[in-house]
Write a structure and sequence with these properties.
The complex is a heterodimer of chains A (115) and B (329). In chain A, 67% of the residues lie in helices and 12% in strands. Chain A is an alpha+beta fold and 115 residues long. Chain A has a single domain, classed as Winged helix-like DNA-binding domain superfamily/Winged helix DNA-binding domain (Arc Repressor Mutant, subunit A, Orthogonal Bundle). Chain A has a three-stranded antiparallel β-sheet with strand order 1-3-2. The radius of gyration of chain A is 17 Å and the shape is globular. The two termini of chain A are 31 Å apart. The mean pLDDT of chain A is 88. By secondary structure, chain B is mainly alpha-helical. Chain B has ten helices and two strands, in the order αααααααββααα. The C terminus of chain B is likely disordered. The chains are: A alpha+beta (115), B mainly alpha (329).
Chain lengths: 115, 329
């Protein structure tokens, strides 16, 4: 891997870190277990490693943004996560913030292209 | 199939905080099986399972991603730093407590008895100060290791098929072994100073040994020999990365022998000094037998604690070496 690729890889990781939280929260109106969420996000074009997602779900739960429950009635026990009322409030604010950021960044980057 | 998954989960769990361990392990088990069902046939091969585990990363990497609040140390070294800190939090207060009692006895022997309240306050302050200081040193060492980039390892280097069996009695806990070597080296140095001074002292200064509680030299030399033998044994085990029945039995015998030596070198002389300074203690029931009781209880705990593993190693003695169990701690 060249230095450029390596640098881009690191920066991409930094960019994705916050995006992943927003993406996960946006999918949790329906109760989901980890692997179904990975597939759901992948189907929409966002690939997340398992080693990233599971700790993230626990962290969001620890922050009160998600709630969880073990479902034991299936072929194997699965832990389902769902957004909490507090998480929903945070998601509304984050979504607005994200959309505004996208607009600002678009203007900045397009300005950069012309400048 | 389950064996490899369980081995992986077991090794992840070793680095997880106890309160979250069971929940995370169960969730991880569920995740792996979901992936297997999704990607492979009903009976995936070991290689297919291994490919899933490689994608998850080495056990300590996986466990590290569950630790969120690293300040000085990144996720690769964080679990190991916490293990080191747990040792510090156990050993440092124990040593300080012992030295405080010992110091009180020495000062009494020198005709400078201190009030009890003063001893208690000084001991508490020393406990706090020592624990904080040593914790800071550990964090600093790991922070430096982080800076210079000793936190290595990438997913490509991880081979799940080499993971040690769950509860394999041959497995060497390399971290524990290293801690044992460092402690044995420190203890040897202190005992050599005692040997030079002819007894127990708190002044590690050849020109001014201060008050000395005499101890029988032959037993002190035997104790030094036992500690050095344990140090050498741990070095050998680290090198071969595998316990066997003979080595485990040897270490057990050395531990018990060390306790017997401690009886003559530490417990008996200290009790004799205590009784000489505080004659009223002689009225405490069974005080005369306290050293023997300490040794017998210690030896029993050692034998019971190590016995089951010895039995496991003994049963497997002579079995061909299994490369799968030569692993990665």
């Amino acid at each position: 891997m060249s230095d450029t690729d390596e640098q881009i890889g690191k920066l991409r990781l930094e960019l994705r870190r916050g995006i992943v939280v927003l993406a996960v929260l946006s999918q949790m109106d329906t109760a989901r277990y980890g692997y179904s969420l990975i597939q759901q996000l992948a189907a929409q074009g966002l690939d997340i490693e398992e080693g990233t997602l599971y700790p993230l779900l626990r962290r969001l739960e620890g922050q009160g943004l998600l709630e969880s429950e073990w479902e034991v009635g299936e072929t194997r026990p699965r832990k389902y996560y769902r957004i909490s009322p507090f998480g929903r409030d945070v998601l509304v604010a984050l979504r607005a913030e994200w959309l505004e950021t996208v607009e600002v960044m678009r203007a900045i980057l397009q300005g950069g292209d012309h400048g | 199939m389950a064996d490899l998954i369980e081995r992986y989960i077991y090794h992840v769990g070793r680095y997880l905080p106890k309160k979250d361990r069971a929940d995370i392990e169960q969730e991880l088990r569920s995740l792996i099986q979901d992936q297997l069902e999704d990607r492979f046939d009903s009976a995936p091969t070991q290689e297919q399972i291994a490919s899933i585990l490689v994608a998850l990363g080495a056990p300590h990497h996986m466990a590290a991603s569950y630790h969120h609040q690293q300040i000085f140390v990144g996720p690769d070294l964080y679990p190991q730093m916490m293990m080191a800190l747990q040792h510090v939090w156990l050993i440092a207060p124990t040593v300080v407590l012992f030295l405080s009692i010992f110091g009180a006895l020495i000062s009494s022997a020198q005709g400078e008895p201190r009030p009890g309240a003063s001893i208690v306050i000084e001991t508490l302050a020393a406990l706090w100060q020592t624990t904080i200081s040593f914790s800071a040193v550990v964090v600093l060492i790991f922070a430096v290791m982080q800076r210079v980039g000793t936190a290595g390892g990438d997913k490509a280097a991880f081979d799940p098929l080499t993971l040690a069996e769950v509860d394999d009695p041959h497995t060497v806990d390399r971290f524990e072994a290293r801690v044992g070597i460092v402690i044995a080296a420190c203890v040897t140095l202190v005992l050599l100073i005692f040997l030079g001074e002819g007894g127990l002292t708190l002044h590690f200064n050849g020109s001014d040994p201060g008050g000395v509680i005499p101890v029988p030299t032959p037993w002190l030399m035997l104790l030094i020999g036992a500690v050095i033998a344990m140090l050498v044994l741990h070095l050998g085990v680290l090198r071969r990365n595998r316990w066997n029945a003979a080595l485990w039995l040897t270490e057990t015998c050395l531990e018990v022998f060390g306790m017997i030596c401690l009886y003559f070198v530490v417990y008996e002389p200290l009790l004799a000094r205590l009784l000489a300074d505080i004659p009223g203690l002689a009225n405490v029931p069974a005080i005369d037998s306290a050293p023997e009781i300490v040794v017998v209880i210690g030896a029993l705990i050692t034998l019971i604690g190590r016995g089951s593993r010895l039995v496991g190693l003994w049963r497997e003695r002579g079995s061909p070496l299994d490369p799968v169990s030569l692993t990665q701690n």
